Amino acid sequence: MTGTTEESISTSADVRPVLNSWRDEFGSANTANLALRLAFPIVACLSLLPFISPGIALMAGIALALTLGNPYPLTTARVITPLLQISVIGLGAGMNLVEVGRAGVHGFFYTVIGITVTVSIGLTMGWLLRTERDTSLLVTVGTAICGGSAIAAVAPVIRAKHHDVSVALATVFFLNAVALFIFPPLGHHFGLGQRQFGVWSALAIHDTSSVVGAAMQYGARALEIATTIKLTRALWIVPVTLVIGMLWNRGSEEKGAGKAKRPWFILGFLAAAAIVTWIPALKPAGHGVFVGAQRSLVVTLFLIGSGLSRQALQVVGRRPLIQGFLLWVIMGCGTLGAILLGWIG
Question: What is the pLDDT of residues 20-30, one digit of tens each?
C-alpha cells in the first residue's frame, strides 16, 4: 500500500530500504495502529512497577498479542535474549559467590542425572508417539536443558526446518507459562522450604526466565538456589549440542555441523556475584542492581508473552505438544517426589 506521505518523499535508492523496513515493522499508519504502537511501550513500562508480578506481566503480554497483536514483533524478538541475559547478570549482584558455589556443586550431580534421564525418556516418547524426528529432539533438549536457549542452540546444528523450531518453541513456551503460575502454589501446598523449591524449579522448569520468575515469587533464598542451579544446568548447552551435532549428522552428506552458541552471560552472573562478595562496600549498590534486574526480568516476561501469535498456536501439532506435556509432567513429578522423599536435598 502506498500512502501520500510516502509519495512526497524522494524514491531514491537510499530512501526505499528505509521505507520498506518501516512498513514491515509498523504496518499501515491508521489510527488503531498508532494507538497500539503508543500503548505497547506504556504497558511494557508498567511491568517495572513493584506490584506487577512475573505471572501478571506474562499474561498481559499474551493477552495483548492474541487480541490486538504485537506492533513491534521484529524489535521484541531482537531484544528478548539480550534483556534476559542482562537481567540474569544483574541478579548475580545480589548474591554471595560462596553460597552460589555451594549451590552449584550441590546441584551438579542432580543436573547431570536429570538431563540424562530427560533426554532418554523424551526421545523414547517421541519414537512411540511418532513425532517428527527433529521436532522430537528439539522438544526434548528444550525440556532437559534450558528451554528456548537450548532449542536455538541445537536447531542450526541439526539443520532443523523453521517449522520444527516453531513447533518446539511454541510447545515449550506454553509449558513455561503454566509452570510460572502453578509451581509456587504447588510448592506451598507440599510444604517445600525455600531451598527445596529452588532446587525443584531449577530442575523441572524449562526456561531461565520462568525458573527465576517462579522462584522470585517464592522467596529470596529460593531465587538464589534456583538461579544458580539453573545456570549450572544451562552450561550443558554447549557439550550436549556438540555431541548431538556429531551423532545426529552422522552419515549425512553435508559435513560440518553448526556452531553452538556459548552462554557467556553465565560468566557475567558469576563476576557480578564475585564483585559484591569480595568488595563489601559495593553491596548496597549491588542490591540496587539486583532489584533492577528483577524488574527487567518481569518486563522480559511481558515481551516473551507478546511474542506469541495465532500462527504459532496453529502450528503446534498434537504429537509434539503431547510429548512435551507428558515429558514435563514426568520430570516435574519425578523431581518433586525425589525431593519429598529426601533423595534430593
Answer: 544 555 444 46
